[in-house]
């Protein structure tokens, strides 16, 4: 799962915020980690002194690792108080190597504004942790790193959904929070033995609410209709984007600029009718390709817009579904070297923690069952 996240992140990062048409024009089709970032020819200050490409991951992967570390510290299930304590420490007070900045820094130095909100709301405002997400810009920021919650509830999508909602309420609200719950549920469903991408999507739909559910249902329907027809990637993107436009008003206009100041928009504001784009699109490409790992991720990141997060979500779900055999050795090596990480060691450490939590859950369930039998 973790390698799927990092792979989708690093594949999508160099083309983030380009439209599908822009990607086709500039790159043809992105299939390699050794892709040059479209902003690398810009002046350093114009790209915020960041670098991407050649396997470098973004905040999606780093926030996932931070959440794994919180589990490692607590060795138990999490709630919004752990967002207020553990995540604030991880992003604001724990120095780490930030690959895009090519230096050691606090993760908050790299984060987008809705993720910086975690620090502002919890440490600076000392809010009720359950209300931390209120007022935030509604986006995919919680869903992009929530996959570890699916692991500690492996094969139990509803429990993963519930914990993700309880924890991520400290960061997001509305359909941004809902997407985090559904994403965690999809990852949990991927751990069911001998499951399929069809079953995973149905598990996600089974817990999803409001616009998030409707968007996934509609995109999934299109994916099933187009699967096996030989439809081009361009035609699939056009169909997916036409469908998601009813739930996400951003379209290809994802860059903020002085010209957008004061412009009225339904983007990023709470709504029971809307959905983030990334999760429905990721599930759609997974369904389109019958759960095939690499092509689903590549189709997702070549569809444009928030490419790294689409890749992360597809990579997490399909990595959990298929296991480590789908990760190429050369990709594994580049992801580690480019980011000064040891993803296998991180995955092994988190596996041990997840087993501890799952074992405790099973023992508690058995104890409750024995108690019920005694009462009977």
From TrEMBL:
Matches recorded under InterPro entries: ADP-ribosylglycohydrolase, Ribosyl_crysJ1, Ribosyl_crysJ1_sf
SUPFAM superfamilies, alphabetized: ADP-ribosylglycohydrolase
Pfam families recorded: ADP_ribosyl_GH (PF03747)
Name of the protein in its database record: ADP-ribosylglycohydrolase
Source species of the chain: Devosia yakushimensis
């Amino acid at each position: 799962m973790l390698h799927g996240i990092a792979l989708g992140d690093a594949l999508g990062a160099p083309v983030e915020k380009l439209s599908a048409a822009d990607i086709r024009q500039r790159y043809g089709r992105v299939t390699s980690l050794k892709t040059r970032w479209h902003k690398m020819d810009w002046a350093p200050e114009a790209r915020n002194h960041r670098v991407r490409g050649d396997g470098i991951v973004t905040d999606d992967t780093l926030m996932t690792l931070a959440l794994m570390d919180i589990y490692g510290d607590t060795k138990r299930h999490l709630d919004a108080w752990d967002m207020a304590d553990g995540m604030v420490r991880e992003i604001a007070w724990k120095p780490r190597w930030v690959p895009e900045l090519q230096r050691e820094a606090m993760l908050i130095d790299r984060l987008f504004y809705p993720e910086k909100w975690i620090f502002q709301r919890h440490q600076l405002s000392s809010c009720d942790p359950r209300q931390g997400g209120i007022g935030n810009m509604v986006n995919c920021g919680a869903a992009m790193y929530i996959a570890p919650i699916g692991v500690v509830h492996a094969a139990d999508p509803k429990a993963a959904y519930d914990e993700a909602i309880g924890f991520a309420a400290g960061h997001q609200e509305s359909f941004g929070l809902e997407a985090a719950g559904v994403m965690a549920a999809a990852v949990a469903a991927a751990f069911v033995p001998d499951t399929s991408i069809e079953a995973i999507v149905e598990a996600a739909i089974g817990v999803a609410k409001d616009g998030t559910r409707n968007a996934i249902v509609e995109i999934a329907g299109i994916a099933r209709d187009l699967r096996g027809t030989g439809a081009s990637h361009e035609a699939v993107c056009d169909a997916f984007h036409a469908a998601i436009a009813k739930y996400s008003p951003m379209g290809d206009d994802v860059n903020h600029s002085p010209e957008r100041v004061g412009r009225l928009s339904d983007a990023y504001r709470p709504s029971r009718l809307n959905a983030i784009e990334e999760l429905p699109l990721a599930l759609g490409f997974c369904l389109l390709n019958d759960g095939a790992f690499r092509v689903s991720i590549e189709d997702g990141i070549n569809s444009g817009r928030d490419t790294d997060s689409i890749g992360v979500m597809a990579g997490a779900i399909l990595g959990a579904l298929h296991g480590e055999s789908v990760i190429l050795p050369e990709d594994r090596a580049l992801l580690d070297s480019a980011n000064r990480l040891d993803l296998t060691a991180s995955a092994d450490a988190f596996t041990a923690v997840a087993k501890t939590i799952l074992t405790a859950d099973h023992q508690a369930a058995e104890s409750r069952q024995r108690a019920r039998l005694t009462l009977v």
